[in-house]
Amino acid sequence: MNAARQFEQDARRIAVDVPLHQVLKKNLATYQHAAGLGRERFADWNAARAQAHAVKAEAIAHLDRYLLEFERNLTARGGRVFWAETAAEARDYILALARRRQVRQVVKSKSMVSEEVHLTPALEAAGIATLETDLGEYIVQLRNEPPFHIVTPAMHLRREHVAALFHEKLGLPESVHEPEALVAAARAEMRRRFLAAEMGITGANFLIADAGLVAVTENEGNARLSAALPRIHVVLTGIEKILPRLRDLALFWPLLATAGTGQAVTCYNSLIGGPRQENESDGPEEMHVVLLDNGRGELAADPEQRDILHCIRCGACLNICPIFETVGGHGYGTTYQGPIGAVLTPHLRGPRFAHLAQASSLCGACTSVCPVEIDLHPHLLQLRRDSSRRRPWREQAAFRAFGWLAGDGKRFEKLGRRGRRWLRYAQSLAAPSSRLDPLRPWTRYRAAPELPPESFRDWWRKRKNPAATNDAGAKAAHS
Amino acid sequence: MNQENPARERILRRLAAALKTPTQPPWTHSPADAARPAFAPLTDIRTHFRDECAANRTELIEGRREELVRAFYKLLMDTGLAPGENPGPGAPRIYAQKPAAGVEAIWEELLRPWQGCSDGPDSGPPDDRHATSLTLAEALIARTGSLLISTAQGGRAASVLPPLHIVYARAEQIVAELDDALARLQNHGPTPARSMFSLITGPSRTADIEKMLVLGAHGPKRLVILLDA
Amino acid sequence: MAKITLFIPCFVDQIMPRAGQAMVRVLERLGCELEFPEEQTCCGQPAFNSGFWDEARPLAARWARIFARAETVVAPSGSCATMVRHFYPHLAGSDAGLRRELEAAGTRVYEFSEFLVRQLHIEDVGAYFPHRVAMHDACHALRELGLKDEPRRLLRQVRGLELTEAEDCERCCGFGGAFAVKYGMISAAMGERKIAALSQAGVDYVTSTDPSCLLHLGGMLGRQPGRVRPIYLAEILAQTQDGGAAA
């Protein structure tokens, strides 16, 4: 089934999933409360957004130069950088490395890029046990599901779901429902795996050019363990994650945390710049950074939508989006959900995901919360423009006809009057939302509007010149 | 390396060509003046640090040296992590980083109960048997109630592996802003020599189940700072 | 008083003339002199929002021509005012002449509540409406025009009116033009949530700066039991104690 049809079908099902909506409403309300308090910690949240926008704009405008600077500084400490043009290249590099080093177990901390390149299935297929160690990711991995949300992978689940899952998969007693106990069980299970793994894979939130450091933001400590215990550390990330200067983090760490969870900063913000150094007591023997392009370079070539590359994956646009809350993260059928997913995915995976830009009321809530001021809803409009000539011929013809109709005042008036009369007549014959109802796409979910016999202009004319005629139709016919 | 990785040149070439066209002005503009500071300056750094620690669940113990030493013993006794009379192989172990210059005296005092124990204190790479770690910090940050550590503070694992992480720090290590701490990392040039740093803000946590806060997800459940006033 | 040129959106003209009529009554009561250029049709927003910019462009140019000499343009819709004020220039593409024309067109256009409060500095229009009312913030008026307090200030001065804030009043109602029919199931789910919040707030009426939201919410309310009814802002402000809402 094509992606657009699949989306429609899933949306129809999920839009009426009341239990899911209840979970989302509660979780999102908790987030909004925390994020609101978090923004108040700033003297001027909008000034912070404007500054962040400027920093990212500079980073992206000179992306090639900053990437080279990052590479030079990281390799000076013995880190290795691999550039991957496609998802397959990134996967193959990591797979070949794992095989070469006889890796049998991998621990992974959260990385949306690894979802983007489908890394875990590739490693598993090669017989390498791969464990997601972020608790939310771990839960969805056990359920054999993709993450529901780029920041909160298990946002769609209640504790009862997790309890049942842990009972089944970890043999926890059925009665254990408290988050505290569930977390402890997962911790114990995963700790064993951390100590045994030969390779740790993390994502990156920022790549710091001037310092040659990879910045990883988290709360749990699993990314720190992934970069500390196994003998090989692999970072898999997108080329757009560059920040020019280490000190930019003084803004971006609090900004990301506030927009992501409402925290002042997250619990752990680590900077990793290579394998264990000579004077250091522990750490991996090797560190590899895989820089993924996968369509980002082409997006950089679009001077209108280039700012999509500013995204710091905080999830704020998902959390405020009424579409996200209605169709859920899984409804999108993409790695990146919500408004950022709708604007990014067509660039990464082609025009077959153009329908996501259509599935929006253009309310603009996303744009108003984006901490790096991405023009999200304008990009939805631009993507609709870009796909307009690929839309069904009926739709194209309808808008051409509309353009013609509205191109002349008298024509508009005359055909408007006839149209209303005809629709009233049709409504008197066909039951609302029946197959014969010409307004069915509207009346399927709503009552039909009552169509007035008199338009505004009829009324205006009559009022200004009551003597002329009471029959606006007759007047129009004469003119 | 370029032969091994032909994509590198292709990606860089594509970017260079792509970025020749200047970015179009955005449709939406923030009403804000970007020149305004994002944060208001802190008036009382010490108090702010204290409040932020409380907010992020860092246990802050302030006092003079002897008070800190007493508090440290009490903490370990209370949690059953102090060495007993005859600590056997199963007894709780402590990891302590090698003391840096200037803290040898207090280090010796803090670790006195372990002197002569067969099981510790250890300063090699920590492992899962360590119930506690004792480290120093590079800096403390008032704005967020954080501490900044590097691999100089016991490497990568010491501050994240054990369930209890205890940090000894001096009050003059507190800086106001994240920016002050980051600038310090670049004191000797833009590229720091260490391979890892971590800004730690409270004990490890998760809210992945119904957005409910649980401490001790993968890292320490408790983070204690002994602040030498 | 100000001389005003009326910008009546096509859907108001054809489907909800009462919204435009109510605005006319309020402005006249305040002593404004009104004109209505009868050649006006549609600003082009439906085509623009659906991505058909080539079809929208001539409509935008046409609108700019028709309103070229107007001093002050007032519209009973935050969305259509936004189209002209914020989105028109983007339709011009590389045509600098057209861009100038379209940029000029937007500078004198105001949404109704914005015009009353920010331009005329009037909050009390002498209205009477003894009901519990909740304000739904229409997206364009709220986020593109920055109108949050303006409609509320007007409502607070209405005799007898009890202004209530419903939960999530800034959340989109789910209309979104063609979206409402293209993804009707999502649109309806968003509307349901809005209606649930309004019902919980126990209001008699929901009002807004945009009649298009009310067209959608009204259609949904029409299918279910409950007492919440939609009413456009100007329709409230047009009501007076002596029954001044009659034509």
Provide a descriptive summary of the structure in words:
- Chain A is built from 24 helices and 10 strands.
- By secondary structure, chain A is α/β, with parallel strands linked by helices.
- Helices cover 53% and strands 10% of the residues of chain A.
- Chain B has a 5-stranded parallel β-sheet with strand order 1-11-6-3-2. In chain B, strands 7-4-5-8 form a 4-stranded mixed β-sheet. Chain B has a two-stranded antiparallel ribbon with strand order 9-10.
- In chain B, helix 4 links the parallel strand 2 and strand 3.
- Helix content of chain B is 24%, strand content 21%.
- Chain B is globular and about 75 Å long.
- Chain B has 229 residues and is of the alpha/beta class.
- In chain B, 43% of the residues are buried.
- The longest helix of chain B has 14 residues.
- By secondary structure, chain C is of the alpha/beta class.
- Chain C has 2 domains: 116 residues, Rossmann fold, CATH 3.40.50; 115 residues, Rossmann fold.
- Chain C has 13 helices and 8 strands.
- Chain C has a 4-stranded parallel β-sheet with strand order 2-1-3-4, sandwiched between helices.
- In chain C, strand 7, helix 12 and strand 8 form a beta-alpha-beta unit.
- The model of chain C has no long low-confidence stretch (mean pLDDT 95).
- Classes of the chains: A alpha/beta (479), B alpha/beta (229), C alpha/beta (247).
Summarize the structure.
The complex is a heterotrimer of chains A (479), B (229) and C (247). With 479 residues, chain A is an alpha/beta fold. Chain A has helices at residues 3-14, 18-40, 45-61, 63-75, 87-100, 112-116, 119-125, 135-142, 159-170, 179-196, 222-228, 249-260, 296-300, 316-320, 322-331, 338-349, 355-358, 365-369, 376-387, 393-405, 409-429, 440-443, 456-464, 472-478, and strands spanning 80-84, 105-108, 129-132, 199-202, 206-208, 213-218, 232-238, 242-243, 268-272, 286-292.
| Low-pLDDT ranges of chain C | none
The CATH architecture assignment of chain B turns out to be 3-Layer(aba) Sandwich
Based on helices, strands and strand pairing, what is the structural class of chain C? alpha/beta
The 3D shape of chain B can be described as globular
* Total DSSP helices of chain B: 5
